[in-house]
Amino acid sequence: MNLNEIYTELILEQSRNKRNRRELENPTHEELGHNPSCGDEITLQLRVEEDLIKDMSYLGHGCAISQASTSIMIDEVKGLKVQEALLLCKKFIAMVKGEISDEAELEDLGDAIVFENIQNLPARVKCAVLPWYTLMNMIEKDNTEGSFIPL
Hints:
Distance between the termini: 35 Å
CATH architecture: Alpha-Beta Complex
Oligomer: single chain
Number of strands: 3
Order of helices and strands: HEEEHHHH
Radius of gyration: 14 Å
Number of domains: 1
Largest sheet: 3 strands, antiparallel
Strand order of the largest sheet: 1-2-3
Structural class: alpha+beta
Helix content: 40-55%
Shape: globular
């Protein structure tokens, strides 16, 4: 099995993963992310306590890439401080835009590094970055209620 097959398998596995797709009890933050060009739509829910992302989940629908990216993002940011999660969002977006390619610099993205080559599929970039922009917007605006995010 080559690296592309492993990445494809991880994306498919994560897109079907229901562990992070659930209604969160007592969220402190909720944000709608919508990609009008393809119909991907997610609602991120966070529970932040003392500047720490204690729990996180999502509801929504979309292609395998958007769903996998959302699930992987949740796995990577749950348990982080809010500002650490924000930095991870910015790093992921920079990676997808091709602005960062140094493997050592990308290590803290964990499984999200699977999307490194998505830049070679321009039509799918918005699918991969949707949850990351949604979370970044939520943190930067400290949104406790939903809002529309233009991509």
